[in-house]
């Protein structure tokens, strides 16, 4: 009987880091979900996608990319709205880190090494 794994050390570093970032987003989303926010549900779905990626599932990769792009777009929109409402003083460390993590996750998942690995090895 094969058991699932949380990470797969045989995957390229780009996918391994993307899985870890997705798990971090899922844990943070769980805290947000306690406040009844929609972003919490998206983050928990990222955790599910990370688990599927770690177990070589193509659907997990596709869902992970879609959710990462969605979160990045939401982060960009919130950053732009903060800049429009409060000027440069509206940006704080939390907003900058959220945007950086979202963009990094998209870049890791869409990196050529990640894409070629999932094309060859995921089922």
Short synopsis of the structure:
The protein is an all-alpha fold and 123 residues long. 77% of the residues lie in helices and 0% in strands. Helix 1 runs antiparallel to helix 2 and helix 3 runs antiparallel to helix 4.
Low-pLDDT runs of 5+ residues are: none
Q: Spell out the helices and strands N to C.
A: HHHHH
Count of distinct structural domains: 1
Total of helices: 5
* N-to-C CA distance: 18 Å
What is the β-strand count? 0
Task: Provide the β-strand percentage band.
Answer: under 5%
Give the % helix. over 70%
Which structural class do the helices and strands define?
Answer: mainly alpha
Radius of gyration: 15 Å
General form: globular
Q: Largest sheet, if any? A: none
Mean pLDDT: 85
Tell me what you see in this structure.
The chain is mostly helical and 123 residues long. The protein has one domain. α1 packs across α4. The radius of gyration is 15 Å and the shape is globular.
What are the key terms here?
about 120 residues
Secondary-structure blueprint:
Blueprint (H helix, E strand, L loop, with lengths): L12 H21 L4 H17 L3 H29 L6 H18 L1 H10 L2
Helix pairs in contact: 1-2, 1-4, 2-3, 3-4
């Amino acid at each position: 009987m094969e058991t699932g794994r949380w990470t797969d050390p045989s995957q390229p570093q780009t996918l391994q880091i993307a899985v870890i970032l997705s798990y971090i987003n899922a844990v943070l989303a769980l805290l947000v979900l306690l406040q009844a926010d929609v972003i919490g549900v998206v983050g928990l779905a990222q955790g599910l996608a990370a688990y599927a990626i770690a177990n070589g599932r193509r659907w997990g990769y596709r869902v992970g990319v879609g959710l990462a792009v969605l979160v990045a777009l939401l982060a960009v929109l919130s950053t732009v709205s903060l800049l429009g409402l409060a000027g440069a003083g509206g940006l704080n460390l939390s907003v900058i880190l959220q945007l950086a993590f979202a963009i990094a996750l998209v870049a890791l998942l869409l990196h050529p090494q990640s894409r070629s690995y999932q094309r060859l090895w995921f089922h």
